[in-house]
Specification:
This protein is mostly beta strands. 11% of the residues lie in helices and 33% in strands. The chain contains 20 helices and 121 strands. The strands form 26 sheets. Strands 1, 3, 8, 9, 10, 12, 13 and 15 form an 8-stranded antiparallel beta sheet that branches. Strands 52, 53, 54, 55, 57, 60, 62 and 63 form an 8-stranded antiparallel beta sheet that branches. The chain is extended and about 145 Å long. 42% of the residues are buried.
Length: 2027
């Protein structure tokens, strides 16, 4: 009764929608209401059997069934609908909390999905999904549904109409149902048509829209009864027909939509919701437009059994697409219609059945035609203009399954496919387009989103019917082009015209190829290009690629990039081109060549090389070629079109007003958007936003760049600063971490003098290479650490930091400290340890000793130093000085990646939570050994579902995954090296409004951000770092990726660091501060590989045989012994038989230099054995017995085993099959015969010969196993015993203690085997010979430049000026004649040396076969350089190197001769190649001289340090060096190679230091030659010295751009210092700047002066003295001016009286003479110098002859001073003819004199031929002259005019007087020249005698006059005669050592001389240069004329701008002897 009452109440409440029952106070009223309610429900159930669900998303009905556990479930109903999706019914549990509902998870739901009935049953974990039945159930017909569940069998039966399906439910078959769901314990509800919004699953299913009827369910008594509806909403009783009152007008058909009536206006010409709008809507499509219609809003195809498509069209074109609809699931179907060749083609396909209908004729008549296609179940009807075509569907399937989108009028790039033979878009008009009941055009016109207009861009559809003409062709990209073939009629008469429209300012519009048809000489091609340049038309006409000079360019001044149509016409006729644009034209000039059009015509591009954006972007139309119009639509469909489209030319100038392109990128207006040309910028991305370069060198290093070098860095990333070049040093280690250092150099020189006497207060402004102040500040901000070294050297010059010395940084902060910090003002590093000699700094102590303060400033914001301020001492005469050195700025690390902020993730479950990253950039670094790891995971939120993921997904791959709304982006970046290698790797994401850049180290990928997504912020959810919590459901792309196991650091948002260590709190698990890499440093010993477990580790031993233990710490190879190789040097073990040695694996290591040796031997008492031996240096042989057979297993390796290195041998005896393993050996083969033991004893067990044969008795011996290591007793074998080491012997499990056993061996075996050579004890190239034992070794120094036991004693000698080392050797056969000699040495000369010194003299001790002594000499001129001369018998060559080498520092000399070229260089200790033996021709400043390729003969003696006195008398030409001092200083590494390519080398000093004669005999003269060193001087350093580089994997290719700012700018503070008036200037004392590394010496005034004040009296006296001196100076000047005027008048008078009328003007002006080429080596006229003169050359002389073959070099580049020919056709033995001027009694010196002499000879044809002589091969006295020269003492004296002497004494006197007069005139001119030109001399000449020439009387005398520049340079060096001090040699010594002139070897000198007359005896006497040749204290000029007497040797030392030098000139005074021989003669 209560239940019935309750049900009635519920029914009443349902009908009346009454939700809260109220009980009346009156019982009568209550009974009455109950009766009425029951009557109402019964009546309703009897009458109401159907319902209409007509409110979308609201309508539903429900009831609550009462089920028992044994009751079957059955539901039956009928339904009809037009919607493909909707809920039919759903059974839920109710009255349970959410948690319990989710636990039981029960559902029985049925719905329509895309027109198919689908049933889902779910109970707990058991699910039965996808029970589908029926098709096209949304066809608005009634369908019957019945669902039945048999609870006894768990069988489910579903029946729809006549189709039934049966299945078994998993929840019934796999488990007792009642244990899962007990109906007695739970109540439930069944919903029909939808669900209550309050239910848990309200949003799961869409609501039903339609009708249901006869809804029944089965009760507990198995009866079907109508459902007792307890709740309903939005439901009407009965199945309502909305078309009962037809609302459609004008004959429109009404369709019941259940929620409303739908009018189908098809066939009425009316439109609108009720067909009340007069239509129809008409649209014109122009070939590039089309429409799309959406059948339904779902993404899955819907099966349809009926469909109608209809339209009316009008066109004049024969082809075009009308309809295109296609579907592919569950089977193929399509409906297409097109116009083709004036007919209609219709194709309908369902499955494999294609229905083709062709209808109509000439329908392209531009008249309206109607086409309707109707699909009705198995029929297809096609109507064209009312004519019907019917077809049957024969396939088993008959439902259309079309995709939602239907194309109308065409599409985008259609291709020919099934059902579509036409691909062109439709051109014409449409109206009355209907798809089913929808008017497509009406819907489009009113803006429905189901219809879309496409192809027109921003244009709107053309709503009318208009015939289409002038269809434009669009070139949407710079790569688009139209290629047309040329024809024969175009070749010589071609025209092309079209209209064009563009907004681009630079583009190729047209390209034509040209060919020159005249191919008689060459194939010639050209081209014509029409450009748009700077927005103007430009014609480029290139008729010939081979002749670019014929190119013609023309521009029409008319802007055409204005986005409007412009006309263009190009004509080419008869080789001329004419371009007309908008009526303006230009024409090319006629090339007069037969040019033709060749190959193809290209519109929009060309065949030349263009920039990526220079292709044409725009449109053309009305294209005509030779008058023929080209159809645009046809062209686009052909292969001639590349990237072209038909879209109506929808051009928009997107660059107008756009500021998209950043950093100078060029804006390019693309077809739909803006593009930026970033090619000329340092940025990338769509907007040139992302920098191409890293911020610092450390970012490069952390990204995998390991090579040091010059790199570009972008300090502010995408900011405004441009990238700059810096120097990177990679791999800098600090605190177990590695960094890249950024190094910036500056222009403040090292050791700059900042304090000295008389210096001013100053400020130095420092510039840094290519970095300004802002860049420097940025660098320090971006870096974690920076430093800059400051060094202050002082002598009596206080630093006074803060008061007299301070610095300023780039940030304008003042610094007053060095090497401390800003908390310690005025301090230096010594103050930190209280070790300063001054108050706060060493240089605060004002002493005269050298002091130094240096340190690194490390406060970042106070670096770098850009200003230095120095205030001088108050007393300007303070005798002190100071140098300042400022190191480069060095920065490293990343301020956002401080190592201390790193964290460690120890397991795959840790994570950190950080604040959301929203936009901009984010980066982080990680390291791991795992192949998968989550790096970053940012979730979405309810308001912003965007998220992103960065994860390692494989060994080399990092995945970046993004979601924006419903759009997803995914990119994988592959790393060139594994990211799981345990090294640091960096990932970063950077965004702008257009792109997102993903980077992994140096690899990047840029993605476009999808359209229509929120720009800012992109993301807003929680950012998880390193992993995610288990409760978070990860995206499927990383479903299998776990949290990182490793380290992370450097998280930064938009450049702001986030300290990961600060994110760790008490709730964080498995994450720890700092990077705890257990494998760093590597805990595994003995090379074991560490497997990182981040907090733990595992070691994998690299040698599994020898190493063991947790850390591979056990190494049996430490037990090593050394065997001596003797018969008693072996180890012997005796072990029991059961030890199993013969059947176990043997392991040991050995090392030896023996090729064959016995390593190990084992045998037992029964003669079983195993033997191991080394054979042939590369074979290990294991011998063993198989019973009584001897077998062996051999392992041969590719290398060598006797090289002294350790080799591991394993005799693997697995199961008796022997395998030999040597070192790392993967050889799998084993011996094929198993080792088998003898079990009985025999005295002769083997028939084969045994290598080792133990002593065997007749009976068996004591049982046991004998082990011999390293050898056996002599009575067992004579095979070579081991000389070497064995270690790590292990047999089976037994490790033998070798060292303990060796201690018992009485030193026959050494108990150690240590590498003597392991520490490389042999230095400087010495070869170490290993002897092992206790590190014994010997050094072979044969090929080293050093001596001593370890080759560490420098092969050097200190020469004291009187010491000489003579080294005699016997040259090998190959060195008897040498043309490729080499010489190497290192020397050091103390400062202060002023005289020339001989270093090395190499010569032939005995006369050669040519009766000469060839030699090489090296000497030093302390003021000018070092020089090397060679004397080759008849020629002298030389080469030199400029420099001041007497500076106390070591210098290396390298010389070689090869192929006629002498090469010399001298390197200082700071040279990058110092002590390198390689001589590079590219070396700066190298001396190179081209010489004749003549041999040096039989060199056999080396003199080091000077020349013995005895050599001057026995070796010709050595007197030139008699006055040179012996060497004083240190010399080492002297090596002479007589033949450069032979290993034969002579090292005299090395033999001296070794006390042995290896290749020669060394003899020392003079004081002992002690050892010295050329290495103890400190190298000169600079502020830009590069740091040591780590080996790298990448090679940067950049170099610094030019940077030459000059030295740091100096600003002087205050006036210059003045001297006190009561003090005089201090004496100028040469003082070296106080530093051991000063690059140049500087004179600093030093004195001791007080600071007394001066009174006025003293000042007045000083002023008076100064005034008096000025007055005297003025008077003297007046007198000198007057005297000068008188001199000029006298000179003028003398000139007028001069009777010589020959031309005095030189051929070459003085200015020309002073040129770069100052190699005037001979000034005498010669026949071969003038083309108008010829003469017969003399005969070839022999080598001993004294005549000269001197000839100037053939070119300016030849710097030889040889006296041999310099061209290959000049033989060194040929002489040159020279004429003697008989009139002037001297050799002819000009052309006129030669011609004069020849004329005289021709005028006397009867003259004796002997009279016609040249200065050739005969002595001068044999030359016929008008006045015969007088010979005195073997010296020819030329006659002097006006004199008549016939004896020698008179001749000497007269000649002396003449010479005095001549010399005086000469020096009077030269003094003036010296004064004017001394400062301009480019370089001082070497110390040699100057060649002077006399200017003769001929008119061409200038040709023989010395170069004026030469004279100036000589005078500037030597001074003129008036300034030379006369120096007379000691008479005693001179007389005693006087050489007899008749016997002098110089009469047979190998060098002839040409001496000018102006070098007179008076001059020579004045300079004292003739020394030993002087007669009675005066010098004879006659000696100069004798070829064999001290002849002048003209030299050029290979210096640019260096004059010619005479070796025997008058400019050197004799020097005192350094070594005195027994006869007291000078050496």
């Amino acid at each position: 009764m209560e239940d019935g009452l309750r049900n009635m109440k519920n029914s009443a409440r349902t009908v009346s929608h009454f939700r809260g029952a109220k009980f009346l106070h009156s019982l009568k009223l209550a009974v009455f209401l109950v009766i009425v309610a029951m009557a109402t429900i019964v009546s309703s159930q009897e009458i109401q059997t159907s319902w209409t669900f007509n409110i979308p998303d609201i309508s539903f009905i429900s009831f609550s069934p009462k089920y028992t556990n044994t009751q079957n479930q059955r539901i039956s109903l009928n339904f009809r609908t037009r919607n493909p999706n909707g809920l039919i019914f759903c059974h839920y549990l109710k009255d349970l909390d959410v948690k319990e509902l989710k636990r039981i998870n029960y559902q029985l739901c049925a719905e329509l999905q895309y027109g198919v009935f689908v049933l889902k049953y779910q109970l707990m974990q058991y699910s039965d999904d996808g029970i589908s039945i029926g098709k096209a159930l949304n066809n608005n017909q009634w369908h019957h549904l019945e669902v039945f569940i048999d609870v006894s069998s768990g069988e489910l039966t579903v029946k729809v109409d006549n189709e039934t399906t049966v299945t078994s439910l998993k929840s019934y078959t796999r488990q007792e149902f009642t244990t899962l769901l007990d109906w007695t314990q739970h109540s439930s509800a069944i919903y029909f048509g939808g669900t209550d919004p309050d239910t848990l699953f309200s949003d799961t299913y869409p609501h039903f829209l339609g009708c249901m009827s006869d809804i029944q369910y089965e009760t507990s008594d198995s009866k079907l009864v109508p459902v007792p509806v307890t709740m309903m909403e939005g439901v009407d009783q009965g199945c309502t027909d909305r078309c009962t009152n037809n609302p459609c007008h004008h004959g429109g058909s009404c369709i019941n939509g259940y929620d409303q009536a739908v009018c189908d206006c098809f066939g009425t010409d009316y439109e609108g919701e009720f067909c009340s709008v007069l239509g129809p809507t008409t649209v014109t499509l122009r070939g590039y437009e089309w429409l799309t219609y959406s059948l339904h809003p779902y993404d899955k195809n819907i099966l349809a059994e009926s469909m109608r498509l209809s339209l009316e069209f009008k066109t004049s074109r024969g082809s075009g697409v009308l309809f295109y609809a296609v579907g592919g699931a569950p089977y193929h179907s399509h409906v297409t219609a097109s116009v083709h060749a004036g007919k209609i083609l219709v194709s309908v396909a369902i499955g494999d059945d294609d229905i083709e209908v062709e209808a109509g004729i000439a329908i392209d008549d531009y008249r309206w035609h109607n086409l309707t296609i109707v699909h009705e179940v198995r029929k297809v009807y096609v109507y064209l203009d009312g004519q019907e075509n019917e077809r049957d569907i024969l396939d088993t399937n008959y439902h259309l399954t079309l995709d939602p989108k239907i194309f109308i009028g065409g599409g985008n790039n259609f291709v020919v496919t099934r059902g579509l033979q036409v691909t062109q878009n439709f051109v014409g008009c449409f109206k009355n387009i209907y798809i089913n009941d929808v008017s497509v055009l009406y819907e489009m016109a009113k803006g429905s989103n189901r219809v879309k207009y496409n192809g027109g861009g921003s244009m709107q559809p053309h709503y009318s019917c208009k015939e289409v003409v002038n269809i434009p062709i669009s070139f949407p990209t710079a790569a688009s082009m139209l290629t047309l073939d040329s024809t024969n009629d175009m070749k010589d008469d071609f025209e092309i015209e079209f209209d064009f429209k563009t907004v681009r300012s630079e583009a190729v519009l047209l390209y034509l190829s040209l060919q020159d048809t005249d191919t008689a000489f060459e194939y010639n091609f050209g081209f014509v290009e029409v450009w748009i340049k700077a927005g103007q038309p430009h014609l480029k006409f290139v008729p010939s690629n081979l002749h670019p000079e014929r190119t013609q360019n023309y521009t029409i001044p008319n802007l055409v990039n204005t986005n409007i149509w412009h006309s263009m016409h190009l004509a080419i006729k008869q080789g001329e081109a004419k371009l007309k644009v908008n009526g303006n034209s230009v024409s090319t000039s006629n090339t007069k060549r037969p040019l033709e059009i060749y190959s193809q015509i290209i519109v929009g591009y060309g065949y030349n090389s263009y920039k990526a954006h220079e292709g044409y972007v725009g449109c053309i139309r009305n294209l005509k070629i030779n008058g023929q119009t080209m159809d645009a639509l046809d062209l686009v469909q052909t292969s001639a079109a590349s990237g072209l489209i038909i879209d109506g030319c929808n051009i928009t100038d997107y660059c107008k007003g756009s500021r998209m392109c950043e950093h100078g990128g060029v804006c390019l207006s693309e077809w739909t958007d803006v593009a930026c040309d970033c090619s000329e910028t340092f940025y990338t991305g769509l907007a040139c936003h992302f920098p191409k370069y890293k911020k610092t060198c450390d970012e490069y290093y952390q990204s995998g760049v390991n090579e040091s070098g010059v790199m570009l860095v972008d300090l502010d990333g995408s900011g405004d600063l441009d990238p700059v070049h810096v120097r990177c040093h990679m791999g800098f280690e600090e605190r177990y971490d590695f960094f890249g250092q950024t190094i910036v150099d500056h222009n403040f020189p090292s050791n700059t003098t900042v304090r000295a006497s008389m210096m001013r207060d100053l400020k130095r402004l420092i510039s840094y290479r290519l970095l300004g102040r802002e860049e420097l500040i940025r660098l320090t901000q971006e870096s974690a650490f920076c430093r800059q070294k400051i060094t202050y050297n002082c002598i009596h010059s206080t630093i006074d930091l803060g008061t007299k010395t301070w610095f300023k940084s780039a940030s304008s902060e003042l610094l007053d400290y060095i090497g401390t910090d800003n908390t310690s003002p005025g301090s230096c590093p010594c103050s930190l340890t209280a070790s300063c000699t001054g108050e706060m700094c060493n240089c605060d102590n004002n002493t005269m000793t050298l002091q130094k303060d240096e340190g690194y400033n490390t406060v970042k914001h106070q670096l770098p130093i850009t200003e230095v301020t120095i205030l001088q001492d108050e007393n300007p005469l303070t005798p002190g000085s100071a140098n300042l050195t400022l190191g480069p700025l060095v920065c490293w690390g990343n301020s956002a990646q401080i190592p201390s902020t790193a964290v460690t993730f120890s397991s795959g479950s840790g994570y950190l939570i950080s604040a959301p990253w929203k936009t901009g950039d984010i980066k982080v670094s990680f390291r791991t050994h795992h192949d998968t790891a989550i790096i970053l995971y940012q979730t979405g939120t309810k308001s912003n579902i965007n998220y992103f993921i960065v994860a390692v997904t494989s060994e080399n791959t990092v995945k970046f995954y993004f979601r924006w709304g419903m759009k997803f982006l995914e990119v994988d970046i592959e790393s060139p090296e594994p990211v799981s290698n345990g090294e640091w790797h960096q990932v970063s994401i950077e965004t702008d409004v257009h792109n997102i850049r993903c980077m992994l180290d140096m690899t990047e990928k840029i993605l476009d951000i999808p359209d229509n997504v929120p720009r800012i912020p992109l993301f807003s959810g929680i950012l998880y770092v390193g992993g995610v919590p288990d409760t978070l459901k990860k995206d499927t792309v990383v479903a299998d990726v776990v949290s990182i196991v490793g380290c992370m650091r450097g998280l930064a948002y938009n450049g702001k660091p986030v300290a990961l260590s600060d994110l760790i709190d008490s709730s964080t698990q498995n994450v720890y501060k700092e990077c705890m890499a257990s494998c760093w440093p590597n805990p595994c010993r003995n090379g074991g590989k560490c497997l990182e477990k981040w907090g733990a580790h595992q070691c994998v031993c690299v040698n599994k045989w020898a190493h063991s233990g947790h850390n591979c710490e056990i190494d049996i190879n430490t037990d090593a012994v050394t065997f001596q190789g003797t018969s008693t040097s072996y180890l012997h073990y005796i072990l029991p038989v059961d030890s199993g040695l013969l059947d176990s694996t043997i392991i040991f290591n050995f090392r030896t230099f023996l090729r064959n040796t016995l390593l190990l031997y084992i045998h037992d008492h029964l003669n079983n054995f195993v033997l191991v031996q080394l054979q042939d240096s590369n074979k290990i042989i294991a011998k063993f017995n198989r019973y009584n057979l001897i077998l062996q297993q051999t392992r041969q390796i590719d290398g060598y085993l006797d090289d002294g290195s350790w080799n591991q041998v394993v005799i693997d005896n697995a199961d008796g099959y022997i395998k030999v393993i040597v070192n790392v050996d993967d050889e799998p083969s084993r011996n094929s015969y198993k080792k088998q033991s003898l079990d009985t004893y025999m005295q002769v067990p083997f028939t084969e010969e045994e290598l080792v044969k133990p002593v065997r008795g007749s009976t068996v011996g004591e049982p046991g196993i004998h082990l011999y290591v390293g050898g056996v007793p002599l009575n067992m074998s004579t095979y070579t015993s081991m000389y070497g080491c064995i270690r790590g012997l292990k047999i089976g499990d037994t490790v033998f203690q070798l060292q303990k056993e060796a201690e018992k061996s009485d030193e026959n075996v050494s108990h150690v085997c240590l590498d003597g050579c392991e520490s490389s004890p042999c230095r400087n190239g010495g070869v170490c010979e290993e002897q092992w034992q206790d590190r014994r070794y010997t050094c072979d120094c044969a090929f080293s430049e050093y001596a001593g036991p370890t080759c560490n004693t420098e092969a050097s000698g200190y020469f004291q000026g009187e010491s000489i080392l003579q080294y005699k050797y016997t040259p090998p056969k190959e060195a008897l004649e040498t043309r490729t000699e080499r010489l190497e040495l290192v020397f050091r000369v103390n400062p202060g040396a002023t005289e020339n010194m001989v270093l090395v003299f190499i010569y032939s001790e005995r006369e050669t076969r040519y009766w000469t002594h060839d030699f090489i000499i090296v000497y030093l001129d302390p003021h000018h350089g070092i020089y090397l001369n060679t004397n080759q018998g008849y020629s002298i060559h030389g080469v030199g190197k400029e420099g001041l080498f007497a500076d106390g520092r070591p210098h290396q000399l390298l010389y070689r001769r090869n192929q006629g070229e002498m090469i010399l260089t001298v390197r200082s200790e700071n040279h990058r190649l110092f002590r390198n033996k390689t001589l590079s021709l590219d070396e700066e400043g190298i001396g190179r001289v081209t010489v004749s390729d003549n041999a040096l003969d039989e060199l056999d003696t080396i003199m080091i340090g000077g020349i013995l006195n005895s050599q001057f008398g026995s070796i010709q030409d050595t007197d030139d060096y008699r006055d040179y001092l012996n060497f004083t200083g240190c010399m080492s590494e002297v090596t002479f190679y007589p033949v450069g390519d032979l290993p034969f080398a002579l090292r005299p000093l090395k033999d001296l230091r070794d006390n042995q004669n290896s290749t020669g005999i060394a003899t020392a003269y003079g004081p002992e030659i002690q050892g010295c060193s050329t290495k103890d001087a400190m190298a000169i350093t600079t502020s830009t010295q590069p740091l040591t580089q780590k080996p790298s994997t990448l090679s940067p290719q950049l170099t610094f751009p030019p940077w030459n700012p000059g030295p740091a700018k100096t600003e002087y503070l205050g006036p210059p210092p003045t001297l006190p008036i009561n003090k005089t200037s201090p004496a100028h004392t040469s003082m070296t700047t106080p530093s051991n590394s000063v690059s140049t010496a500087r004179d600093i005034s030093v004195g001791s002066h007080g600071r007394d004040k001066h009174d006025n009296k003293v000042i007045a006296i000083a002023l008076c003295v100064v005034g008096f001196l000025l007055l005297v100076a003025i008077m003297v000047a007046c007198v000198l001016v007057r005297l000068r005027r008188r001199e000029e008048e006298k000179e003028k008078e003398n000139a007028e009286k001069n009777q010589d009328i020959e031309l005095k003007q030189p051929l070459n002006d003085v200015e020309e003479a002073i040129s770069e080429n100052r190699q005037n080596q001979n000034y005498l006229a010669r026949l071969d110098e003038f083309s108008m003169v010829s003469a017969q050359l003399g005969a070839r002389p022999v080598k001993r002859e004294t005549t000269s073959t001197f000839k100037p070099p053939p070119s300016d580049s030849s710097y030889t001073y040889s006296s041999v020919p310099q061209s290959e056709d000049d033989d060194p033995t040929l002489t040159e003819q020279r004429f003697y001027n008989r009139k002037k009694n001297r050799p002819a010196s000009s052309i006129s004199e030669v011609l004069e002499e020849m004329e005289r000879q021709r005028g006397n044809p009867d003259a004796d031929p002997e009279d016609i002589e040249t200065l050739g091969t005969r002595p001068l006295q044999s030359v016929a002259m008008e006045t015969t020269p007088l010979t005195c003492d073997g010296i020819v004296l030329p006659p002097v005019e006006g004199t008549n002497v016939d004896n020698c004494q008179g001749a000497w006197d007269v000649h002396d007087q003449s010479s005095d007069l001549s010399t005086g005139e000469h020096h009077e001119d030269d003094v003036e020249n010296d004064a004017d030109n001394e400062s301009d001399s480019p370089s001082p000449p070497p110390p040699a005698h100057v060649l002077h020439e006399y200017n003769g009387d001929s008119g061409y005398e200038a040709e023989s006059k010395p170069d004026e520049e030469e004279t100036l340079m000589i005078d500037s060096y030597h001074g003129t005669g008036s300034f030379q001090e006369e120096e007379t040699p000691s008479e005693g010594v001179n007389d005693q050592c006087q050489v007899d002139m008749d016997d002098s070897p110089y009469l047979d000198s190998k060098n002839s001389n040409y001496v000018s007359e102006n070098v007179t005896p008076s001059l020579k006497s004045e300079t004292g240069s003739l020394g030993k040749e002087s007669r009675s204290g005066s010098n004879s000029s006659a000696a100069e004329e004798l070829p064999g007497k001290d002849s002048d040797k003209v030299i050029n030392y290979g210096f640019p701008n260096t004059p010619v030098i005479d070796l025997n000139g008058p400019d050197f005074a004799p020097k005192k002897s350094s070594i005195v021989s027994n006869n007291m003669c000078d050496t």
